[in-house]
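thoughts on both lines:
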Amino acid sequence: MLGNVWQWTADWYGSYQAIAQGEPSGPASGTQRVLRGGSWSRYPGGVRASGRYGGLPEDRGNGTGVRCVGN
C-alpha cells in the first residue's frame, strides 16, 4: 500500500523516545498528525513504511489520504 498517497494516522507527530521500541508511539498530544508511507509524488527511494512526517490535520492535497483498516 505504499506509494499511492501519504497515509494519515491517529498519532501526534513528535520525537520518539531514545530507547528501542517494538511499536513506538509519539507524544500524547500536539498540533500535527503523522503521515506515513510516501506518495506518487515522492522519489522512489523515499517510499517506505518507516517514512513519516507531520502535517496539520486540516491540510488537504492530492498526495494525502487514508487507508481503512479493521481490527
Remarks:
- The chain has no helices and four strands.
- Strands lie at 6-12, 33-36, 52-55, 64-65.
